[in-house]
């Protein structure tokens, strides 16, 4: 009996060694992310063909924990080296008892294993329940859940946005027409703006901006649609929130739905969206019904905006850069300038890449007369820890063009958009 137990233990040990042996990660690449999952391609190596797919499966989790995967979590590992040592029993159990299977939605082989020297290599596509995995790490204190900052704390790190609340504009509408003829949306806008003000958010009065534009000759002379775009762009708001309203009047009472969507003015990126119906009441007063609806959704809506600006505190701000050539200038984007005699468009790209946060930028388009960077991430703070603004970035670029490249230019900052005009 004793001999049988020893033999059984040896069999189990050999089996476990075959499954949980040390392995070398192959390449692990990020494919996609959803609300609850991430999908990775992972390869692994093993001495035996029947074990190699399982090793590739483990490699995906090993990279998440210890190495990091480019495209997720800024390429940083989920677990620090100190936490790995402190919680070694967690990871031993995680891999030895195949706990990673609990957090795997699917694991699909990509082709057949191939022989590489004396080992086999396999590649799998793994979809991981990443939120559940992180909650498990938090439950065992392997990682510490970050405390969410409130708006006041975020405001100490970055300049909080100024918001302008505007009516949702349907095809063919103009803001002037809505304010003059659509009482319901006008009331809804005023109610939402009041809700923001009560929460301590800085707002710009949309109606005042439209009235000022109406007093301008440009409003009457130019196309209303182009004027509306200029109104948003020149409003001074960092964020604009569109408000649409729907009515449901019935015998058992009336209710309204408010549909809110927040956009970053400079880039047009969506920051938050929320909608909800008010309770039914036997009243037709739009201000009361709208007030009830905004009370239900405003905290959640602001939480979404807050979450996006928390990202800005760590990942930097998003700006737009438009560099153009003056009509009487002899330089264009193809002109070879600077010490290395590179085309101006390449000089600009290289400078932006060097000075953007983690080199993150995107070029919308480039021609001989202009280049537009529709998204540039700039850091929230400079090297000394001081707040770093759009104006700082604009000044540094202007100084570089003037001193290092040797060309005259002028700059203008409008909200989160920088305009540079080459003058010679």
Description:
- This protein is 42% helix and 28% strand.
- The chain has 14 helices and 17 strands.
- Strands 1, 2, 3, 4 and 5 form a 5-stranded antiparallel β-sheet that branches. Strands 7-6-8-9-10 form a 5-stranded mixed β-sheet. A 5-stranded mixed β-sheet has the order 14-15-11-17-16.
- The termini are far apart.
Give the secondary structure arrangement, pairings included.
Elements: H1 2-20, E1 25-33, E2 38-46, H2 49-67, H3 81-86, H4 88-96, E3 104-109, E4 114-116, E5 119-128, H5 130-139, H6 151-157, E6 163-167, H7 175-181, H8 183-198, E7 203-204, H9 206-215, H10 217-221, H11 224-233, E8 239-250, E9 253-264, E10 270-277, H12 286-315, E11 317-325, E12 336-337, E13 342-343, H13 344-355, E14 361-367, E15 370-378, H14 390-405, E16 409-414, E17 417-422
Parallel strand pairs: 6-7, 6-8, 11-17
Antiparallel strand pairs: 1-2, 2-5, 3-5, 4-5, 8-9, 9-10, 11-15, 12-13, 14-15, 16-17
Helix pairs in contact: 8-12
Percentage of residues in strands:
25-35%
- Taking the alpha carbons of the first and last residues, their distance comes to 95 Å
Which percent bin holds the helix content?
A: 40-55%
Helix-and-strand structural type: alpha+beta
Q: What is the number of beta strands?
A: 17
Oligomer: single chain
Q: Which stretches of 5+ consecutive residues score pLDDT under 50? A: 1-23, 219-224
Q: What's the number of helices?
A: 14
Rounded average pLDDT:
81
Largest sheet: 5 strands, antiparallel
Q: Which descriptor suits the 3D outline?
A: flat
| Alpha carbon gyration radius | 29 Å
């Amino acid at each position: 009996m004793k001999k049988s137990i020893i033999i059984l233990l040896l069999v189990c040990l050999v089996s476990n060694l075959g499954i949980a042996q040390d392995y070398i990660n192959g390449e692990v690449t990020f494919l996609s992310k959803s609300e609850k999952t991430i999908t990775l391609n992972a390869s692994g190596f093993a001495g035996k063909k029947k074990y190699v797919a399982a090793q590739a499966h483990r490699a995906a989790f090993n990279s998440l924990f210890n190495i990091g995967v480019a495209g997720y979590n800024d390429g940083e590992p989920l677990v620090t080296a100190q936490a790995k040592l402190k919680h070694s029993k967690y990871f031993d159990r995680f891999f030895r008892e195949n706990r990673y299977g609990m957090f795997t939605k699917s694991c699909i082989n990509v082709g057949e294993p191939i022989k590489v020297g004396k080992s086999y290599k396999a590649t799998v596509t793994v979809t991981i329940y990443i939120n559940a995995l992180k909650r498990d790490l938090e439950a065992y204190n392997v990682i510490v859940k970050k405390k969410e900052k409130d708006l006041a704390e975020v405001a100490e790190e970055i300049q909080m946005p100024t918001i302008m609340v505007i009516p949702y504009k349907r095809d063919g509408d103009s803001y002037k027409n809505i304010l003059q003829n659509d009482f319901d949306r006008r009331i809804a806008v005023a109610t939402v703006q009041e809700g923001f003000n009560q929460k301590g958010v800085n707002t710009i009065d949309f109606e005042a901006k439209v009235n000022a534009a109406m007093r301008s000759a440009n409003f009457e002379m130019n196309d209303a649609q182009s004027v509306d775009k200029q109104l948003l762009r020149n409003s001074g708001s960092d964020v604009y929130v569109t408000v649409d309203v729907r009515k449901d009047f019935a015998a058992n009472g009336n209710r309204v739905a408010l549909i809110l969507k927040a956009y970053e003015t400079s880039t047009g990126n969506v920051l938050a969206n929320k909608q909800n119906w008010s309770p039914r009441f036997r009243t037709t007063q739009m201000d009361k019904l709208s007030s009830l609806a905004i009370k239900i959704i405003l905290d959640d809506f602001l939480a979404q905006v807050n979450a996006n600006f928390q990202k800005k505190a760590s990942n930097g701000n998003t700006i737009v850069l438009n560099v153009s050539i003056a009509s009487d200038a002899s330089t264009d984007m193809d002109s070879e300038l600077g010490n290395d005699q590179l085309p101006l468009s390449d000089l600009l790209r290289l400078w932006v890449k060097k000075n953007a946060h983690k080199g993150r930028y995107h070029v919308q388009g480039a021609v001989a007369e202009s280049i537009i960077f529709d998204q540039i991430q700039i850091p929230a703070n400079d090297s000394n820890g001081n707040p770093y603004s759009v104006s700082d970035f604009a000044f540094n670029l202007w100084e570089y063009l003037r001193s290092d490249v040797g060309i005259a230019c002028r700059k203008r900052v409008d909200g989160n958009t920088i305009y540079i005009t080459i003058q010679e």
